[in-house]
TrEMBL record:
InterPro entries: Aldolase_TIM, DapA-like. SUPFAM superfamilies: Aldolase. The active site is at Y155, K180. PANTHER family: DIHYDRODIPICOLINATE SYNTHASE, N-ACETYLNEURAMINATE LYASE. Its main location: cytoplasm. Keywords: Carbohydrate metabolism, Cytoplasm, Lyase. Pfam families: DHDPS (PF00701). This is Probable N-acetylneuraminate lyase. Pyruvate binds at T67, I222.
Amino acid sequence: MPGTWAHNEKVPGTFTLRKIMTMFRGTWPALVTPFTDENTVNIAVVRDLVEYLLSKQVDGFYVCGRTGQGLSMSVAERQLIAETVMTQVRERVPVVVHVGSMSIQDALILTRHAAQIGASGISSIIPPYYAEMPQIVGYFQAVANAAPHLPFFPYLFGFPKVVELMQSLLVTLPNVMGTKYTGPDMYEFQQVVNLRQENWYIFSGMDEQCLFARMSGATGSIGSTMNFMPRAYRNIHACFEQGKLAEAMEWQQKANKVTETLQTYRFMSGMIEVMRLLGFDCGSLRLPDFPLSAEDREKLRGDLQTIAFDQLT
């Protein structure tokens, strides 16, 4: 039954339902992971970036996902980032840790670690190469059961049976509290929203669809571009909640122009350059990603100036 699983705030990684109702909403950057010139995690920049985004009044953080290059890092590096973010945040906003891995043992280690450090929730991708429902359900069950008192948000991206999958998980896993859904299909998105009426928190993972997802029942958004356009997305959410849909659409269209510009290059590589423009040297992406050429960096900077990017940060 929804909302019947145990909560005890004296136990790390557990929360009352009343607290949960206020946690999983609004604008959540899928946090970029900065690296040093030696290709190690740049803890100093992680701290600075978290503090900067908190000053922009973001509502939470999603760490070590695709944007954070979680699958390109070791377990120890991912634990270090999660610990650093938790320490810097100091309970000012919730933090969801992405624990997904091709290695189930690594995923379980990361899940237990997230609970130990007091994360607000965990999330996981569907492991690549696996497409059969029993395989995916079994994987998610193992992850969720490794921290049974911690809200679990499966990350749904590119799977053809999303609604069936979520129905299967809801039957067996009481700590499934929602999902991060990345995709343009708002009909399917709304089907996921309608799977439960209470204690159900659906994040849109496709930044370009933030407003449309809110109109379809999303409670929040998790995305890459919220690292450098938090103002735009905070205004989208605020305008929607105030019934100012035309103004919300204006902010969405402005943000989408920036996203479209980045997509004409390589999105992840372009994002690192944008962070550098804001004063955050995130180093180089880990392979198989790679940086923009010097020529493309200059061209991107010029393109951003023509679309008034600085008004969205």
